From TrEMBL, chain A:
Protein's name according to its UniProt entry: Aminotransferase
Domain (Aminotransferase class I/classII large) ranges: 35-381
Presence of the UniProt keyword Transferase in the record: yes
GO MF term set: pyridoxal phosphate binding; transaminase activity
Organism: Methanosarcina lacustris Z-7289
Enzyme class (EC, first level): transferase
GO biological process: amino acid metabolic process
TrEMBL record, chain B:
Superkingdom, taxonomy of origin: Archaea
Coiled-coil boundaries: none
CDD domains linked: HTH_ARSR
Protein name: Leucine responsive regulatory protein
């Protein structure tokens, strides 16, 4: 008889070293509960605009269900380069400087794997999206955390970045507009960071998936700064701007060597992004501006509503300039982010995400997505107001 | 267009009952500024009217609607405006539009019964001097009215937490 086996001994050390996900734990707490109001959703509450869905359906009817080239449909890459030239004057070659990926998640993973050698340090700016640190660890790199603060509007400055740079630093991961704070970066601050990047010969991985969701200001891609195009790989996708989360379509734009290296990994893992989503994305770029702007205006109204709401119930809230998250400060209540979010869920059935899920710098805050109806936002604010009042008694 | 004006018009087009205070919250301005802007928009005719879209079927009031296509012969020195004004004064007429294509004018007419609508078209519209021909299409069911869907759409299930 063959002896029993412990499968866990086969698991790679890199996977074992990934810190447990706070968001996963919270997901388990929420699952199964009914009659909840969720501000925990990091996706638009709009359905993909009909004209985009219609193009996807039409392509399926025509039988377009094949692989595409590894890099993605040439029409989509052409459309993307035209879009970025028009928006920012950025001049990318569709044949060699664009890669279509399965969501920005894949683009992030392969960008880091294409750049990081074992032992390389990669600076991750927090609070930020939960995948950056694990992606660096899985690539054998060492994440080095730089925190942003409420006092600086959660913006990154060259001064806060400088002490984290060592001789082993290879790259910086940026994410503006930011998930979870909603912060953006002003061009002036970015120029100082660009100088630092050149001085220390670093590479920048810039996740700009919330690019189109800015309020009152124009987004500045890091690669559009002088001398930064070849030092930056810009990651982006269609999920947030065009409400296409489930279609899983992202892209990377950067120097030919970087894109080629990413494509080498991509072709042996994903092979290519789904063709149906790529056809939908072409339609989004060609004709999606009006619907996208309509959604942004709606988010803008909800942003005003939720920020005013939080301030009115005594939770000081930084005014986000991008994405669709509000990040109210709950530190004055005496509860930790996790305790606050867990008790709020159990007592008022309102789902928020504890800020510490996005790194230690997020402790004392909650991520509240305003990609929810005004009715839900109103009910959530009322529930949170009652909860905060109860804490004072 | 001024961004605030666009916000106000979109919010009111979506829900005319939204108060100036609420619009002020949604746009980050003051209620006074919103009230003044709305008053100006009303005065200048940008905002023409506030109305409610009713699903009369649900309260058992079975109105009959019909779309009437009209071919018109214009008289010397008279444009379409004259015939349109003549027609839109009838309370049965809900909308009047000048169209391109095979017909000149399209009406939407509401009556209590098909007979009502048929008599109205035959006696009041078809008998006008300028009307060459009419073509009446009765509405069997309305699925969407002025941007509002008249049935409960299926809700989409989203996960309560995502990244």
């Amino acid at each position: 008889m063959r002896p029993p086996c412990d499968p866990s001994k086969f698991i790679a050390e890199a996977v074992k070293s990934i810190p447990p996900s706070g968001i996963r734990r919270f997901f388990d707490l929420v699952s199964g509960l009914e009659d909840i109001i969720s501000l925990g959703v990091g996706e638009p509450d709009f359905i993909t605009p009909w004209h985009i869905r219609e193009m996807c359906i039409h392509s399926l009817e025509k039988g377009q269900t094949s692989y595409t080239s590894n890099s993605g449909l040439p029409e989509l890459r052409d459309e993307l380069t035209r879009t970025y030239y028009r928006r920012y004057g950025l001049d990318y070659n569709p044949a060699s400087e664009v890669l279509i990926t399965t969501g920005v998640s894949e683009a992030l993973d392969i960008a880091i794997r294409a750049v990081v050698n074992p032992g390389d340090e990669v600076i991750v700016v927090q609070p930020s999206y939960v995948a950056y640190v694990p992606s660096v660890i899985l690539a054998g790199g060492k994440p080095v955390i730089v925190s942003t603060h409420r006092e600086d509007d959660f913006s990154l400055t060259a001064e806060t970045l400088k002490p984290a740079i060592t001789s082993k630093t290879k790259a910086i991961v940026l994410n503006f507009p930011n998930n979870p704070t909603g912060a953006i970066m002003e061009q002036e601050g970015m120029e100082d960071i660009a100088d630092l990047v050149v001085e220390n010969d670093l590479f920048v991985i810039s996740d700009e998936v919330y690019e189109c969701l800015t309020y009152g200001g124009k987004h500045v891609p890091f690669s559009s700064l002088e001398g930064m195009k070849d030092r930056t790989v810009m990651l982006n996708g269609f999920s947030k701007a065009y409400a296409m989360t489930g279609l899983r379509l992202g892209f990377a734009m950067g120097a030919p060597d970087i894109i080629h290296s990413m494509m080498m990994i991509h072709q042996y893992s994903m092979l290519c992004a789904p063709i149906t989503a790529q056809i939908g994305a072409i339609e989004a770029l060609r004709n999606g501006k009006v619907e996208m702007e309509r959604m942004v205006r709606e988010y803008d109204r909800r942003r005003h509503f939720i920020v005013k709401g939080f301030n009115s119930i005594g939770l000081e809230c930084f005014n986000p300039k991008g994405a669709f998250y509000a990040f109210p400060y709950i530190g004055d209540t005496g509860l930790s982010s996790s305790d606050f979010a867990e008790r709020l869920l159990n007592e008022k059935r309102v789902v928020t995400i504890p800020g510490d899920v996005f790194g230690e710098a997020g402790e004392g805050f909650l991520r509240c997505a305003y990609a929810a109806s005004l009715d839900d936002l109103r009910k959530a604010i009322e529930g949170m107001g009652d909860f905060v009042d109860g804490l004072k008694r | 267009m001024d961004e605030i004006i666009r916000h106000i018009l979109e919010i009111l087009e979506n829900d005319a009952r939204t108060s100036p205070e609420e619009i002020a919250t949604l746009t980050g301005t003051s209620a006074q500024e919103i009230s003044q802007t709305i008053a100006k928009l009303e005065e200048t005719g940008v905002i023409r009217h506030y109305k409610t879209i009713v699903d009369w079927d649900l309260v058992g009031e079975n109105y009959v609607y019909a779309v009437i296509e009209l071919k018109v012969t214009l008289e010397r020195n008279q444009g379409y405006q004259v015939i349109a004004e003549r027609i839109y004064k009838f309370p049965e007429v809900r909308s009047v539009r000048l169209l391109s294509g095979n017909y000149d004018i399209s009406l939407t007419v509401r009556g209590k019964s098909m007979k009502d609508v048929a008599f109205f078209v035959a006696e009041k519209i078809a008998t006008l001097d300028q009307i060459q021909s009419t073509s009446t299409h009765f509405v069997l069911k309305t699925y969407k009215e002025d941007g509002v869907i008249l049935h409960e759409p299926e809700s989409i299930v989203r996960l309560p937490i995502t990244f």
